[in-house]
Amino acid sequence: MNRINVVNVAEANAEQEVLFSAINEQLGIVPNFLKVFANSPAALTAFLGLFSIANEGSLDTLTKERIALAVAQQNECQYCVSAHTAIGSDAGLSGAEIQANRAGTSQDAKAAVAVKFAKALVEHNGEVTNTELIDIRNAGYSETDIVEIITHVGMNIMTNILGKVSRVEIDFQKVDIQTG
After folding, report:
1. pLDDT, tens digit, for every residue of 92-110?
2. Are residues 68 and 133 in the same domain?
């Protein structure tokens, strides 16, 4: 049951209609979590701007999805785990890789370091160790990459919070949160 209104596309005001049209043009759908964001067109606009900027960065699509899966699992956001399982699969992540990402690692050695770093950021509220920073640099990630990983973690935390607070209906194949 939704605890925050989901703005129905058919009932959207003019400002929401413009945003929904742009989202639909880019994604082919307007996911439910963006319909929750649309309660505040300013918040939705800000999120879309951050999303756009983050997607122009140096990290490849698979690494971004790996990070999203790790963060969503760490924060126990079923909506985001479900969404990024679908998106990650469409982007080329295997089922085994998705499971590894949700556990905070990867089958790809370099990506494993990024996912581990992202998970550490969430677990320790940004208080990562010098060793964790050295490890990510030694894996070949630049300062630009590190800042972008932090940006993706922050963006995903925001969507995880929205998904959990709103309890928005999952409009992807539902995936259960891993426990234990």
Report:
1. 999 999 999 999 999 999 9
2. yes
